[in-house]
Amino acid sequence: MRVDLHTHTRASDGTQSPTELVHAAVAAGVDVLGLTDHDTAEGWDEAARAAADAGLALVRGMEVSTRLDGRGVHLLAYLPDPTYPPLVGLLDRVLEGRSSRVPAVLERLRAVDVELTEDDVARVSGDAAASGRPHIADALVVAGVVADRDEAFRRFLNPGMPGYVDRYAAPLRETIRVVTEAGGVSVIAHAWGRRRTRTPDEAAIAELADVGLVGLEVDHQDHDAGARDALRAIARNLDLVVTGSSDHHGAGKVGHDLACNTTAPEELERLLEAAARARAASGRPAPEPLGL
């Protein structure tokens, strides 16, 4: 069984529709797909219909932008009730932070003689729940300023570059609690990816487990072998679920092909058992996995 629990569509910053993603997953030999668009459940219904038609098992989720001790942390929230008011409010604030920084980024780009308009960004963001840096990167590609998203981030959009603007991210501990209250389970995405230091460390992760964290995404393209070994050891010490995923964005992220990393079936079972317990304890109409 091939299980890929971290993917994106045009509902956030991927380049495929939910239906196209499902078809691509089937073609890649994926048996269980996790849909985790940034800060939104917008793609869930379309993906569910497509997965049912294609005979693909689907775990619905989202990747929430959070912050811990001043550092950004992405949190994979699986199977929460997306109508739970505190979760709705938290996501609305994060999405507003994404959209509201677009004009500020464009102003900074103009200061270095790169001309883009909000209409340019809107044309490439399409039906996304909010426009963000990946869409600005796509607009830079269309304008011929850069060759691809990677170059756009490297030259203009990463922290320290001319077009970088910070934005709101939800407090991590609060987000874990809200996801649990919504009947879902939380997994830290690419915990040590794109970092010079291995943070959060085991002590911080243990504290988060006490709050309700269920797992760590260990096998990810942004983790080298040493980071994977260390994170796997932390997960074992803290009895956390270990996941592996592609973080697939379609054509928007090179080197993240579907199923390039996968989650072991026994770890998927542990994750879904934890979700079933959370759903029962919450009393919320949280979704169940489809086709499993």
Automatic annotation (TrEMBL):
Residues spanning the membrane: none
Residue span(s) of domain Polymerase/histidinol phosphatase N-terminal: 3-68
InterPro entries per the UniProt record, alphabetical: PHP_dom, PHP_domain, Pol/His_phosphatase_N, Pol/histidinol_Pase-like
Entry-linked CDD domains: PHP_HisPPase_AMP
Top-level taxon in the UniProt lineage: Bacteria
SMART domains recorded: POLIIIAc
One Gene Ontology MF term: 5'-3' DNA exonuclease activity
Name of the featured protein: Polymerase/histidinol phosphatase N-terminal domain-containing protein
Organism from which the protein derives: Nocardioides marinus
